[in-house]
Amino acid sequence: MQNLETHPKSRRPVHQLEIERPDRMEEACGVFAVQALEQPVANLVYFGLYALQHRGQESAGIAVFNEGKVRLHKDMGLVSQVFDQDVLERMPGGLAVGHNRYSTTGSSKVCNAQPVVLMTRLGPFALAHNGNLVNASELRAQVDDGEVEFTSTTDSELIAYAVQQAVDGGLDWTEGIKAAASQCQGAFSLVIGTPDALYGLRDGYGIRPLVYGYLGDQGLGHWVLSSETCGLDIIGSPFVADVEPGELVVFRCGDPTPERHRWIEPTTRMCVFEMIYFARPDSRFFGESLYSYRQRIGQILARESAVEADLVIGVPDSGIPAAIGYSQTSGIPYADGLIKNRYVGRTFIQPTQAMREAGIRVKLNPLPDVLTGKRVLVIDDSIVRGTTSQKLVQALRDAGAIEVHMRISSPPVTHPCFYGIDTDTQDQLIAARLTLQEIEEHLKVDSLAYLSKEGMVEAAHAQSEHFCTACFDGNYPVPMDASIKASKLMLEPAGVAATNL
Prior knowledge:
It is a single chain. This protein has 2 domains: 4-269, Glutamine Phosphoribosylpyrophosphate, subunit 1, domain 1, CATH 3.60.20.10; 290-341 and 361-460, Rossmann fold (3-Layer(aba) Sandwich). The protein is an alpha+beta fold. The model is unreliable at 1-22 and 487-501 (pLDDT under 50). The longest helix is centred in the middle third of the chain and has 15 residues, at 290-304. A hairpin with a 2-residue loop joins strand 6 and strand 7. The protein is globular, with a radius of gyration of 23 Å. It contains 18 helices and 24 strands.
């Protein structure tokens, strides 16, 4: 272990909470990696993670390889809070792996930040994971040989130990990573750095995205892996291809042609919520930006659920493209009726009860000049719990709207996700508990309608069987034991759930 340097630190207590959980599905994680000799790879990964900040804001980390050693820096907070130029200048090297985290297995604390760095007989490696395993308990039992010293409560660390044990058992990096992946069930898009290569892998369903591009001239063999194409764009890396479902791609520095290995037969089931909400609107899926897709679902929503109104507004930012599409098809004028504070990120300062009762508005504020005396149609991407949507409707009425109609650019969320998105248990999902009319009454809207599942798929110009739609219909592509559905803190010691959520 003498060539492994780690520098984790923590400034924030693990039990702090945000002001209020948003009324929509919450983030997946973001992974990013660069392999390029004589380039500031740590800086490039910093900017890639900055572009992927929307995918997770709990913690960030970068591991850099330099002359057989790894320097790891990770902490709680946003990328811009965890890293500064002084830190990045102390991280020279030719390969770097980075991660933004939103917790789905394991609580929010610095020991669970990524990348995970371990040592093997072939040298160190760094692993960053987007997704969630549904066999984490079984995998933990498989890798726990009595000598393993777990330092986190994440499924990502378990994948790393599976890689370590496969390599220490005599396999090379490529075969060891494939062997470890074969032990995993669920969603896992991985970037793995080793002393001599960069690896990108997706599970056989391709539930979470992963793409790659190159730096400079493609003939240089300088490679970039990213959760989304917006990460490539920020550093000027042309998009080459997706890491396909069930594929392991190996990038060797200086080699202009990556090695592509099919480690399992694929059955594509990409998470459709990546298209509706998670991924940035400027990221490209199926050859076009998600902005275009989100406009189309708004157009279809207008055809499916017309209503008389004076103006259409979108809940920033994810509801805006659909609101514009709705306006285009319905002929109802579009307006900015809600202003978003784009600089708050996540706040961990808790307001007093008096502040909450006074209606403290951290992120969204309505415009009375636009709304007063108007019949307002508001478009949002989803309703999960119904709490903040109810407050939003009241804020629009308080700002002068005489009618508030709500349209949702996705079907009702009736089932929790277990593949890397943080949702509540089914009994906390409002659409699983209440009828459409009851939700309407709960939100105090004049009318409510959701996009149909058929319309959602039609807008994608793809076959419905290519997507995971489990949160809408309960058809989970990866079978799981009922006990897996109990808690995302399944690997935590007893009592942690009460303090670390």
